[in-house]
Amino acid sequence: MKQYQFIFFICLSLHLIESIHLVSTFSLRTPRKLIKLHSFARLASTDTKDIDTFFYKQTLDHFNYKPESYNTFDQRYLINFKYWGGANYSAPIFVYLGAEDAIDPSPYSVGFMIDNAPTFKALLVYIEHRYYGKSIPFGSREEAYKNASTLGYLNSAQALADYADVIIHIKKTLQAQNSPIVVIGGSYGGMLASWFRLKYPHLTIGALASSAPILSTDDIVHPNAYMDVVSRDFKEVSDTCYETILNSWSEIDRVTSETNGLSILSKKFNTCSPLNNSSELSHYLENMYVFAAQYNHPSSSPVTTICNGIDKASFGNDVLDKIYSGIVAFIGNDTCQINDPTSISETPISETDIETETRMGWGWQICSELVVRHGIGNDTMFRPSPFDLEKYISNCKEEYDVSPRSHWISTYYGGHNLKTILQRFGSNIIFSNGLQDPLSSGGILHDLSKSIVAIYTKKGSHCLDIQSSSPSDPVWLIKQRKQEVKIIKRWIAQYYTDLDALH
Amino acid sequence: MKQYQFIFFICLSLHLIESIHLVSTFSLRTPRKLIKLHSFARLASTDTKDIDTFFYKQTLDHFNYKPESYNTFDQRYLINFKYWGGANYSAPIFVYLGAEDAIDPSPYSVGFMIDNAPTFKALLVYIEHRYYGKSIPFGSREEAYKNASTLGYLNSAQALADYADVIIHIKKTLQAQNSPIVVIGGSYGGMLASWFRLKYPHLTIGALASSAPILSTDDIVHPNAYMDVVSRDFKEVSDTCYETILNSWSEIDRVTSETNGLSILSKKFNTCSPLNNSSELSHYLENMYVFAAQYNHPSSSPVTTICNGIDKASFGNDVLDKIYSGIVAFIGNDTCQINDPTSISETPISETDIETETRMGWGWQICSELVVRHGIGNDTMFRPSPFDLEKYISNCKEEYDVSPRSHWISTYYGGHNLKTILQRFGSNIIFSNGLQDPLSSGGILHDLSKSIVAIYTKKGSHCLDIQSSSPSDPVWLIKQRKQEVKIIKRWIAQYYTDLDALH
Questions:
Q1: Is the dihedral of CA A115, A117, A119, A120 positive or negative?
Q2: Cβ atoms of A426 and A418 closer than 8 Å
Q3: Using one digit for the tens of pLDDT, what is the confidence trace for A51-82?
């Protein structure tokens, strides 16, 4: 895949955090140990014994009635009953809609749910997305990810239908017909949450869609918007840092063209193995900047960390020394970086290699329907690189033997002129964003109606609002979460009033 | 199929009218010449040269990305450009969503569109439903209807996605991005129209759903409701007619049990070939009563015609003579009836046998997702016959090798507690019904919100409002259509206001 197509739409994932692996990458071939994530997010302190695991016998294809469509797979979902007020009181149910990742870390990483469960007396449900974690069709990962014929069932419409089935099943099993459902999701999961409210209003009273870039497909926003934000984040922290990064690309080219240039670069950047070409270095750096911007958590501020490293370099005035100083400030220098031979690239999929699954699954999704256009414009700290749809398509054909349906998302879910349409249709969606998150460039940043609202923070990063609260949270983040809770309370109060009127 | 499962959800179809064949049946094995339809509806006097035919290369499976999902078929749609104000004026587009039938008769049978086209300066579009008419996947009818593997793609969700694609294509081709779309449908097509507004609000500003029994699946309305209305229609016309019909079933049994009973019945009812059992007669009669009730057009009043025949029988007091007199009054006695050996039952599907296609296609649809529950209660003019889901399912397995997903429609589209849900979600749907139409028992008869409204007439029959106006139309029908036009005008005016605000 073209490098900057491979931005993950993921909030934060615990197994990735634990194993200090890569979360946000540009490429299937990005090395393992790019980023230490442990400092990024505070995890909810939930007792694992509070989390019950269930499996639902899910239909393989909801929109077809061929015999093989009736095949089933076990879809995993987790429930935390601890805070629930119970069916007799029609106590609410918060349902987290899983995204392109295993669901087990979600009870800990989506702290917003557990933080607010006692107040709402809410049941907490976390449903795993098909083809991820343990919710694998065709009996095994190997089969499910084998080719386009088995991957064909991995798409958002099928996932939403799965969620509908599981929600109906849970309400029936718990005899909780009158309990209001609020769906919550982040990033791609946030897109799913907002779409679920639009497509299945009979199954949820409202959606909290955190950092959901629902405008990032088709031609709705400019392909350069994402990288513009990354670049802006760095510029806001430091003009000199921005300039150094901007100048570093031609300097990499200059050194590369010297005799033994790649050896010089390999040594300078302490690579794990010698660089084969300068792109390996450039991609690594681009990935790091993008990752830092998307997950620019206020308590760790990776963009500031990198820029401090660059600006305060004690290595002299060499541009590349400054860049390396930025890497060390962010990642540390206790281990080699770049070109790690233990990289997960190209390794076969096994039962334990969940990162590869996430990469492969997401790679398939962005090649089939979620055609996310990302390019680099002329006025950033990166080298310009316009989005090339033809190349994107040909890469997808090569990698997955699939032709992207690049207009399907806006055909099925809409996207153009949303304000005109949704001001008179639908209700009860919160689109939350942090403007430092480059994915906010594809987000909803203005209210679409009285009850389809945008709540954003200028300093927020990706999915920040649905993470656990912390004593060190800035005031603006506390305020954002309070607003969200207030709106959800209003939805639920309105629902109870309607329910009373019915009976 | 169990007899009373096979109620068609169809408005009026010209080829059926022309060939004086059966439109509404209970059974795949119902004889051909049941009803003369020519007296039922006034057709729009449209010049055939005003109707242009187009084909769109349609995707076989919108919700799957397997290689075979990318197969295409030619989907037919018709356009009448005569009245259109043009793209420059953002003049509206009325789109008729085809149902379980070929689309060619629709420009003539759906007169409401052409009657109102000059006032609205509307473009008229008629899109054919997949698997009907000329919109056949897999290259031929024989292949498309071969088995569950090829029929699997015939369902409502795929059909709605087809309509979305065609609408986008038409707007693009005509550079009519700003032209508002109003979708119109009747019966099953009315269900599709309302669902299209709910699922694709970005592609239509509103829907006129005529005689759409969207509550008739799952357990939302009582299975007996349909036949209750049929029975009520006859009772309202004549108590004695109702009583005669009620008494006829046991009389048929009594005569059947006599020596040569079936010969006596065959002679009495002038059957085309000797009856093999009394059910052939009973089913024929049930079909006739149901048909008369569903298509009880005010100008022809078949229920009154039948009852007049029964009540004024000159054959003496024999119950069955009276019933035969009812048949003659309605159908005539110039030809034999019942057990016609030229019946279309059991005939293979050929290119010309469009009725069989409609039966097969609809048979598949009600066996896969549109599980319509119909039974007969204790207090009707029929013999009680409760709905039997198990038998329904086993019949579907036998006939089509498919297991009905009997909850899917309410999972995907909703159906329970619609008022509670749609009073705060969605807008701009007219549900029109006539209460004499037994399918109105599954229709929306109360406003769900300010703009999701029910407009019904006490004396109306199936899809009456979307047929052509006629000088003989009763006042209540004229009023119903005026209300609908007024509401559609309001939608369009509102849309233009929103459009102005946008630019």
A1: positive
A2: no
A3: 999 999 999 999 999 999 999 999 999 999 99
